[in-house]
Design brief:
mainly beta, 11-stranded mixed beta sheet, 1 helix, globular
Length: 152
C-alpha cells in the first residue's frame, strides 16, 4: 500500500489515484481511488472509492460520498456511504446521513437527518439533499457500555 501525505491548499479540483493517501488540510472537490485519511480542516466535496477516515484532528464541511466511513473528528454536511459508517467516541456529526449501516460508540454526538439502510434509493437522497438547510433534529447518543450500536 502506498501512503502519501498530501496538502491540498489552493487547488480547485484534483483526482488522487493511489491505494491510500491523506489530506492534511484544504478544500475543493477531490476524487480518490482507494482509501483516504483526513487529518485537518477541509471544505468541499470528497468522493472516495474506498474507506474515508476523519481522524480526531479532522474538521470537514461539505459532502462526502464513500464506500465506508470512520469518523473520529468533526463533520458537517451531507454524507452518502454505501456500506458502513462508524462514529467513534470523539466524533461530532451534524447534517444528513445516508448509509447502509451505522455503528455508534459511547460519547459520539450526532444531529440531523439519518436514513440508514436506504442508500440505494436515489429519491430519498435527493429529498434529503433538498431539505438539508431546514434540519433541526438533534440527538446525543451515549450509553453505559463501551459501545452503543444502533441501526435506524
Amino acid at each position: 500500500m502506498i501512503t502519501m501525505n498530501y496538502s491540498t491548499e489552493n487547488r480547485e479540483s484534483e483526482k488522487l489515484t493511489s491505494n491510500s493517501c491523506s489530506i492534511i488540510s484544504g478544500g475543493g472537490e477531490r476524487v480518490v481511488s482507494g482509501d483516504l485519511i483526513v487529518s485537518g480542516k477541509y471544505s468541499g466535496r470528497l468522493t472516495v472509492n474506498g474507506m474515508i477516515t476523519l481522524d480526531s484532528n479532522a474538521a470537514v464541511t461539505g459532502e462526502i460520498i464513500a464506500n465506508e466511513m470512520i469518523i473520529e473528528g468533526i463533520f458537517k454536511g451531507i454524507a452518502r456511504v454505501e456500506h458502513k459508517v462508524v462514529f467513534g467516541k470523539t466524533s461530532i456529526f451534524s447534517g444528513t446521513l445516508l448509509a447502509g449501516e451505522a455503528e455508534m460508540h459511547k460519547g459520539c454526538t450526532i444531529s440531523g437527518r439519518r436514513n440508514v439502510g436506504v442508500i440505494h434509493e436515489k429519491d430519498a437522497f435527493q429529498e434529503i439533499t433538498h431539505n438539508f438547510s431546514s434540519l433541526k433534529e438533534s440527538i446525543l447518543f451515549s450509553g453505559k457500555d463501551d459501545q452503543v450500536f444502533m441501526v435506524w
